[in-house]
Amino acid sequence: MDELDECRIRSTVILHIAPIQHDRVSGLTFAIPPLINALYCLGVQTGLLATSVLGGYEKPEPYPVIYMKNLPFYPKIASMPEPLNKPSLIIFHSTYILEHIPLAYEAFKRKIPYVITPHGGMTFRAQQQNYLKKKIGNYLFFNWMVRNAVALHCLTEREAEDVKKIWNHPVFVIGNGVNISEEDVIAHPGSKPKLRFLFLGRLDIKHKGLDLLLQACVLIKENLRQFKAQLVLYGSDISGSKIKLERLINKYQIQDIIYLNDPVWGDAKQEVFQSADLFVHTSRFEGHPIAVLEALSYGIPCLLTPGTNMADQVEAAGAGWSVEATPAAIAKGMQDILAARLELPKRGQAARNLVEEKYSWNQIGKQSLREYFNLLNQN
Question: Are residues 170 and 199 in the same domain?
Fold first, then answer.
């Protein structure tokens, strides 16, 4: 960025508003703070207004973090410490957050432009979840909030195409990022006698397509046993999903193939990634899954469904396989991988190359800043 850009960077104030907590596992928690930090490291005056009704965001960050309950009911933004009380641009993360409505109204009244980043929450598939509740919410407030946004920030081209069909509003596309793993800790897929397929994420059966994944394993359970392949799942229990998954595993008699585990963090998470030969993500819908980016950064090829919004790109880069979200298609994909296990090292290197070229947080921060400046030039 040239000198003029640097001057503008230092004078720009960007406020991120998000319903996140430091101790609650979600994709937002892994996506939003690193983006804010990337902007901060570029010299932007930026910070976070945490709006979760369940608690604040207390993890230490280099940028200011304010909890909404420590501010008056209205006006909250104007009551924040300088310079966040007079932002150049506001980024609202997530959708259907009631606490964001008075904040959007305040921004509208003060003529502060704002962007909505729905993180997958405005696609057709997402709109079908709790359909009636969302339809009422759209009518009462969310259509107004979208109409007055300067743009919608989608994380993938697939998400953007879906969103534009429904909302007919300006959209730009910038993905999530990832902290690139060091070379000495990357995985070595295909180097061990046994194959280890990995899922890491919330154990949300319908959202993550875990029912489809289990049914696929049933279809090829003898092949998996023949190749000494195991599927290991790590994640937090969502609405009793862990018990439901355990029952399905017992029902299908695949206890020797599929293993359920609690979520892992830090060094334990790194060890889990290092031990994997393939990352499996069979979601019905997503925004831009951080877990997939992390797996790619460790040099792990991926088996993905279209709902992840990354399947086509990963397959085109030679970094994995794309399959439809059906048990038969997922089973066929896993069979193809078993037969082509010698390709795993090559695809693992392609996975690593993909994130290094496109998805470091520093690159995502720069792309975001350029788009923010374009929007500010229009207002």
Answer: no
